[in-house]
């Protein structure tokens, strides 16, 4: 009986691989979120001052159910972070314009 219980616990574990390249991560200071009836699309961008053009660094596509789970998980983690380290200041900045950066002169 103990073997059956141990076997069931082992079957519930998920083996997730994290490659060295992926472990480095990608910095993003802007997330653009769009959705349709069947999916949420989150584009992560790194915008640098003075740079006329920025590229999407990563795109994540989620089902609505997974998007809701992600939102709950983020909210829970922010709450735990603030309990441990204090309130995260929210600097309400103006939205970044699509033509961010210097404009060309003719």
From TrEMBL:
Domain of life: Bacteria
Any Pfam family the entry gives: DUF3467
Protein name stated in the entry: Transcriptional accessory protein
């Amino acid at each position: 009986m103990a073997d059956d219980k141990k076997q069931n616990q082992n079957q519930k574990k998920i083996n997730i691989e994290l490659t060295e390249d992926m472990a480095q991560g990608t910095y993003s200071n802007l997330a653009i979120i769009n959705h349709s009836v069947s999916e949420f699309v989150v584009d992560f961008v790194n915008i640098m001052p003075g740079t006329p053009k920025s590229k999407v660094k990563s795109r994540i596509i989620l089902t609505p159910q997974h998007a809701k789970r992600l939102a709950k998980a983020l909210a829970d983690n922010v709450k735990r972070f603030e309990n441990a380290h204090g309130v995260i200041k929210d600097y309400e900045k103006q939205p970044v314009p699509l033509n961010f950066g210097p404009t060309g002169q003719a």
